[in-house]
Amino acid sequence: MGLASFLHPRLFLQLFLIYIFVVSGLIINLLQLCTLPIWPISRRLYRVINCRLAYSHWSQLVLLFEWWSGTECTIFGNAEDWQRFGHEHAIVVLNHNFEIDFLCGWTLCERFGVLGSSKVVAKRELAFMPLVGWTWCFMEVVFLRRRWAEDFHTVKRSLQRLKDYPENIWLLLHCEGTRFTKEKHAASMAVAASKGLPLLKHHLLPRTRGFCTCLFYLKGTVSAVYDCTLNFRDIERPTLQGLLKGQRYHADMYIRRIPVETIPEDDKECAAWLHRLYQEKDALQDEYERSGVFPGEPFVPPRRVWPVLNWLFWASLLLSPLLRFSTSVFSSGSAISIATFLSALLLGSLAVRQMIGMTETHKGSTYGQSFNKDK
Questions:
Q1: Contact at 8 Å (CB) between 167 and 51?
Q2: Shortest CA distance to 50 belongs to which of 123, 124, 141, 111?
Q3: Looking at the DSSP assignment, which residues form a beta bridge with residue 75?
Q4: Distance from C-alpha of 186 to C-alpha of 67, rounded to nearest angstrom
């Protein structure tokens, strides 16, 4: 990166976004640490506070998606279903084809007012990722080692604790377990052929054990499964780096609400049901490729102003110390101090970009090697 590029005004805005995200995230993590003594006194109060703190951090990424890049997500489906969104506990089944599909899920949560209380099932390595990973640790997110003998008890304990959660939960699940690539797809379809399962064109085989376990231990708590199938127009391949640069994408998502009482309780029947669901998701993607739209009525949930107000709060709080420090550095006239300051900004930007890169497709988990152990 040349000096002229580094000094470009847009890059300074990107660095300021990163600065606010990092510093506010560290403050939020510290505040979350201070809430730990509340847990044995009032678990409800602990959760309410941490939902607000998590929202204050995660909504900055939603702001990056909605306001900074101008990306919009149009949902398709049944208007009657949308009336229930945000008013019930639900398991949300998302396909896992894009680097920012998790952010599309978060944006959907934000539009329906459940971002702060949303949950995920994530690989354990992400618990050590600064900021977002640390926030997840306080938010009772389920972390997996991807060894089912150990993970089963972790999932069971974690889900049972959520039964008395004071706010509506959306548990966001990527049942494929890892992001789609051609190599992983080939390995997955080899497994499908060996098990006599129908081949999928746009998805990997779903990991049925995790889904069935979540459904079993959350029955009586969750009311429905939301089947979400995401795609981007004009064969766009969106990235977090692209969003940070202000690139606009066009997301379409088909969502249907499936009441939990219509899903079989028996493990084998539930697994078969999930495989059929992914066959239907595959057919939806075929239809999208042919027509450019999903079936159903299109709807764009209105943006909420809270992510903007939240970001403005942190910007007003953190801008003054940044200006004072940078002014003192440049007014000192010391070439070493100025070079050190600019280097620190550059290294900080690269560090956040590297952290973002931890989610890139080619760095996802292996597929096929462990699938046979799953189901």
A1: yes
A2: 141
A3: 253, 299
A4: 37
Reported as type and span, the H/E element at residue 252 is: strand 250-259
Q: Which two tokens stand for residue 302?
A: 């209105």
- Integer Cα distance of 227 and 220 in angstroms: 19
pTM (predicted TM-score) = 0.87
The full length of the chain comes to 375
216: buried, middle or exposed (CB in 10 Å: 19+, 13-18, 0-12)? middle
CA dist 301 and 82 (Å) reads: 9
* Residue 227 phi, psi (nearest 5): -85, 115
pLDDT per residue, tens digit, the chain (375 aa), is 343 344 345 677 877 888 899 899 999 999 999 999 999 999 999 999 999 999 999 999 999 999 999 998 999 999 889 899 999 999 999 998 988 888 999 999 999 999 999 999 888 888 888 888 899 999 998 888 767 777 788 888 888 889 889 999 999 999 998 888 899 999 999 999 999 988 999 999 998 988 999 999 998 899 999 999 999 998 888 988 888 888 899 999 999 999 999 999 999 999 999 999 999 999 999 999 999 999 999 999 999 999 999 999 999 999 888 777 667 766 776 777 667 766 666 666 666 655 555 544 334 444 444 444 454
Q: Which pair of tokens denotes residue 374? A: 């799953």
The DSSP secondary structure of 93-157, one letter per residue, reads EE---STTHHHHHHHHHHHTT-STT-EEEEEGGGGGSTTHHHHHHHTTPEEE-S-HHHHHHHHHH
Produce one character per residue of 168-191: b if its CB has 16 or more CB atoms within 10 Å, e if not. Answer: bbbbbbbbbbbbbeeebbebbbeb
Amino acid code (one letter) for 125: E
Is residue 298 classed as helix, strand or coil in its secondary structure? Answer: strand
The residue type of 320 is: S
- β-pairing, 72-77 vs 250-259, is parallel
Give 375: exposed, middle or buried? Use CB within 10 Å, 0-12, 13-18, 19+: buried
Q: Which helix (H) or strand (E) holds 14?
A: helix 9-34
**3-class SS of residue 198:** coil
